[in-house]
C-alpha cells in the first residue's frame, strides 16, 4: 500500500473511532445509559478505554503519516518510536484481548459480561463496533506496515503497569460504590478474583508475544534492521 493510501486509511479509521466514541458519549436524556455510567463513569469499562486508546493511536499514526511526507523520516524519529510503542504495548494487545475475552464470555454466558438488557441501549451494530471490528483494524495495522517492538522485558512491564492501573481502578470503584464494573466479578470470591486477574494478564502477555512474533514473521526483525540503518 502506498504512503498516500496508508495515510487515507489511518484517517478513515480515526474518523470511525471518533464517531463511535461520540455515539457512546451521547447520554443526555438517556436515563438507562446514565445509570450504566453512574458509578465510575464510562471510563470504568475496558471496552470504552480501548476505544479511546484506538482513537489516540490512529490520531498519532495520521500525524506521523503527514509529518513524514512534509519533513521526512529522520526528523520525526521520536514520533515514529512513540507510534510503535503505543501500538505494540497497548493498542494491539488490548484490542485483541477485548475482542477475545468479550466473545468467549458472551458465548459462555452473556449475563456475565453484557446482559441482554443492554441490547435496548446499545444497538447491535454498536456492540460489534465496540467488540468485533476492533480486532480486524488492529490486524490490518500489523499487515499494513512494520512496527518496531521494544525489548520484551520493557514491553511486558509497560503492559503490566497498564493492567495494574486498570485493576486498581476496578477495585477502587467497588470499594467506593459496592458495585462491580462487570457482573462476572460478582460471581467470584477474593481468591477467584486474584486468579481471574492473573490469568487475564497471562492471556494479555501471550497476545503481546503473539503480536511480536506475527510482526517478525511478516516484516522480519525490526530492531536489527534499524540498527543496520544507524
Tell me about this structure.
- The chain has 230 residues and is mainly α.
- 76% of the residues lie in helices and 0% in strands.
- α4 (77-109) runs antiparallel to α6 (134-144) and α7 runs antiparallel to α9.
Which descriptors apply to this entry?
230 residues, mainly alpha, 10 helices, 76% helix
Rounded radius of gyration (Å): 19 Å
Please tally the helical runs, counting DSSP H or I stretches of 4 or more residues.
Answer: 10
Which class do the helix and strand fractions yield? mainly alpha
- CA distance, first residue to last residue: 26 Å
Helix-strand pattern, N to C? HHHHHHHHHH
Q: Hey, roughly how much beta strand do the residues contain?
A: under 5%
| Biggest β-sheet strands, sense, barrel | none
Low-confidence stretches: none
Helix content: over 70%
Summarize it:
With 230 residues, the chain is mainly alpha-helical.
Amino acid at each position: 500500500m502506498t504512503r498516500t493510501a496508508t495515510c487515507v486509511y489511518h484517517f478513515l479509521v480515526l474518523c470511525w473511532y471518533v464517531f463511535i466514541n461520540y455515539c457512546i458519549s451521547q447520554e443526555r436524556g438517556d436515563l438507562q445509559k446514565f445509570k450504566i455510567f453512574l458509578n465510575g463513569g464510562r471510563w470504568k469499562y475496558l471496552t470504552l478505554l480501548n476505544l479511546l486508546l484506538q482513537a489516540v493511536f490512529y490520531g498519532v499514526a495520521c500525524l506521523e503519516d503527514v509529518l513524514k511526507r512534509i519533513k521526512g523520516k529522520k526528523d520525526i524519529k521520536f514520533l515514529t518510536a512513540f507510534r510503535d510503542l503505543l501500538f505494540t504495548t497497548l493498542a494491539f494487545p488490548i484490542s485483541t484481548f477485548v475482542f477475545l475475552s468479550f466473545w468467549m464470555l458472551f458465548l459462555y454466558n452473556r449475563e456475565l459480561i453484557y446482559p441482554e438488557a443492554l441490547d435496548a441501549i446499545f444497538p447491535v451494530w454498536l456492540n460489534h463496533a465496540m467488540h468485533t471490528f476492533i480486532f480486524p483494524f488492529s490486524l490490518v495495522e500489523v499487515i499494513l506496515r512494520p512496527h518496531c517492538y521494544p525489548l520484551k522485558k520493557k514491553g511486558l512491564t509497560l503492559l503490566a503497569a497498564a493492567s495494574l492501573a486498570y485493576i486498581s481502578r476496578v477495585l477502587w470503584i467497588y470499594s467506593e460504590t459496592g458495585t462491580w464494573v462487570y457482573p462476572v466479578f460478582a460471581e467470584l470470591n477474593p481468591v477467584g478474583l486474584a486468579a481471574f486477574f492473573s490469568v487475564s494478564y497471562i492471556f494479555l502477555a501471550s497476545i503481546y508475544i503473539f503480536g511480536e512474533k506475527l510482526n517478525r514473521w511478516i516484516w522480519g526483525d525490526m530492531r536489527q534492521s534499524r540498527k543496520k540503518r544507524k
